[in-house]
Amino acid sequence: MKSLRLLCLVSLLTMVVPAFSMPLKAYKVARKADSIESIETYIDGVGNGFLFASSALQAESKEPLFCIPDLALNEDNYLALLDRQIKDGMPTKAAWRDDDPIEIILLRALQRTFPCKK
Predict the structure, then answer these.
(1) Which label site among 6, 84, 85, 118 has the fewest CB atoms less than 10 Å from its CB?
(2) Which residues, 6+ apart, have CB-to-CB distance to 46 below 8 Å?
(3) Strand partners, 7
(4) Half-sphere exposure of 16 (CA within 13 A, CB side)
(5) pLDDT tens track of the chain, all 118 residues?
(6) For residue 70, with 0-12 CB atoms within 10 Å meaning exposed, 13-18 middle and 19 or more buried, which class applies?
(7) Is 39 helix (H, G, I), strand (E, B) or coil?
(8) How far apart are CA 66 and CA 72, in angstroms?
(9) Is 100 left (phi over 0), alpha (psi -120 to 50) or beta?
C-alpha cells in the first residue's frame, strides 16, 4: 500500500513537472522506490532538449551548452550521468541540496562529460 501511494505521488509530480523543475528530493524518492520508470521519459526529454539547444547554438556559431558526442544518448545514459553527478556533487564539490533541480544537475553532468575543447 505504501508503495502504491509513493508511486501515485511520483506520478503526480511528473504530471506537474512540465510547468516546474523537478527537485532532487523527488528524484531520490523515485530511485529509492525503484519507480524511476515513471520519470524516465521526462529525464529523456530534458536531456534531448539540452542536446537540441546545443545543436541550435552551434548552428548559429555560438558556444554550445556542451559538445555533442558522436554517440546517441538515451534515457539510460542520462540517468547514469545524473546519478554520477549527484554522487560527485557540484563543481565546487559541495553536495547538491534536495531542492536543487535535476535539470541543472543533468546539464552540469553533460557539460562535465562532454566539454568543448578550446
Answers:
(1) 118
(2) 78, 102, 103, 106
(3) none
(4) 11
(5) 555 454 444 554 554 444 578 999 999 998 887 777 878 889 999 999 999 999 999 999 999 999 999 989 999 999 999 999 999 988 777 889 999 999 999 999 999 999 998 7
(6) exposed
(7) helix
(8) 14
(9) beta
Show the cell assigned to 92.
565546487
> Can you read off the three cell numbers belonging to residue 13?
509530480
Scanning the structure block, which residue is given the C-alpha cell 529525464?
43
CB 82 within 8 A of CB 106: yes
Residues 17-26: pLDDT tens digits? 445 789 999 9
Does pTM top 0.70 for this prediction?
Answer: yes
| Helices assigned H by DSSP within the chain | 2-16, 24-32, 37-59, 75-88, 102-113
Whole-angstrom distance, CA of residue 60 vs CA of residue 34: 41
Q: How far apart are alpha carbons 84 and 93 in whole angstroms?
A: 13
